[in-house]
Each structure stands twice: as C-alpha cells, then as structure tokens.
Fold:
Amino acid sequence: MESHAAYKSRWLPWVLLSPTFIILLLFLYYPTLRTFELSLYRVAFLGLRKKFVGLANYKVLFTNPDYLHIFWNTAVFAFFVVMGSMAVGLALSVLANQKVSGWRIYRILLIWPYALSPAVAGVIFLFLFNEQSGIVNYLLKVTIGIAPGWLTQPALAMALIIFAAVWKNVGYNVVFYIAGLQNLPGEVLEAALIDGASPWQRFWKITFPLLSPMTFFLLIINTIYAFFETFPFVDLLTQGGPNGATNILIFNIYRDGFRFWKTGMAAAESVVLFIGVVILTVLQFRLGEGRIHYGG
Structure:
C-alpha cells in the first residue's frame, strides 16, 4: 500500500520554499540583472553619475587590442588548467587505485591540496617561487646554477599560475575519478585481461570509455573553476603581469571595477564571461552527448 505525503494547504509548500526564493532573488537574480543593466552605462567614480551608452562598452571589449589580448590569455589559461587538472587527476587516480601498502596515505596526500583555499595556495606558491628567497630558485641555483625569473618573464609567469591552479584542483578530480574507478564492472576488465589485452589497451578501450560520464561531469566543473575561481592565483602571484602577460578576464574584471572604477566596463566583461561560459557549457553538452556511455 502506497502512502502519499500531502500538505493540508496548497500554500504551505510555497511558504516553506519562500526563504530560498528570497535569498536567490536578492543575492543571485537581482545582482545578475543589475550587472546586465550596468553594462549598458558608463559609470563615473563610485557611481556618482551614469551615462547610457548602449553597446559601446561591448564594442570596446571586442575592438580594443588590450582586451583582445586578455581574452587570448584567458583562453590559453583555461585550456591548460582544465586539460592539466583532468589529465593529471586521472593519471594519479589510476595509480592511487592500486592496492599497495599505504594506499590510504597516498590518497590523502593527493587530495589534501583541494582542502586549501585558493588564497592560501597562492601564498604557498608565492613563497616557493620567489625569485630572491624562494626555495625553488635556491635549489635550482645550487644544483644547476640557474635562477629563473618566474614572476618577471611572461612565459614563466603564465606557466606558474597554470601550475598553481592545476595543483590546487587536482585533488578534486582525484576524488571523483577514484570513485569512478572503484565502480567499474570488474568482469569486463577481467575478460579483457584473459583475452591478453595490455594494460594500455585495457585503459583506453575499456576503462576510459566507462569513465566518460565522470569525465564529462569533471569537464564542466573544471571549466567553471578555470574561469571563475582562479582569481587569487593571479592576484597574489603576478597581478596580471609582467606587461599583462597573465591578465585573465576574471582578474581584469576586479581591476576595472575596484581599482580603476570603470564599473560599466567591468559589468560588460562580467556579462561576456558569463555568456561565454554558458555557450561553452552548452557546446560541451551537445558535442559530448554521443560520446558518453552510461552503464546499464
């Protein structure tokens, strides 16, 4: 006999949900709409005066070479962070999934960087790669006699913030990939082993395709992370330098909005970033739909 929960009043569910709706309205939907509106204005210092300029802010974004360079930096940074985090996370997960002595300790050590806040991770890398007093340059100078300018050379600075962002997020991918590996059908892998498939063949032909739902989920999460949650690494390590080489969109939004007080331009950048990530996510769903294999 089935029992169905019922409310005595049809308004009671709405009353119970109203705190959530109010919070979403005040702290999500209203700020989003205000950002879209603000992007159509040129705003004076501290918002004392606004002038409607229509799509002029967007025109500047897509025609100014400085902003186009920022878009390029953002694309390069996001691509390497997403691909690096997922590839390293998957490789470490396969190794950590082996039943060896001390495997629990290895897993904890792989996961713990994710428990750190991005700001703390940024400070750690700032101390490690400081050109004058960092331990990395000290060891390099003692061993091979070089001391690279991690924060003053454009290519090295970009590589450093990518490495920091990947290191911070690898633990998240490890958690999910290990969970996926532990839930793979063992009989399929055993059948491949009996048939003489090599470890490399078993991975690419069986393990990786069976992990495709987890990979697709992590692709979305890592994309959001790369675009929205990596501000502290740029802010603490490079400040967008040298010469704008590491200035990505999320950092430039902060700089335009809170340093230069170009609020309208910062709002337009926020809208572009939001729409860009939405489009990228939709494309990932469309392109990945036929490649995802869910177990029966």
About this structure: The CA atoms of residues 1 and 80 lie 55 Å apart. The chain has one domain: 58-291. The mean pLDDT is 88. DSSP finds 13 helices and two strands in the chain.
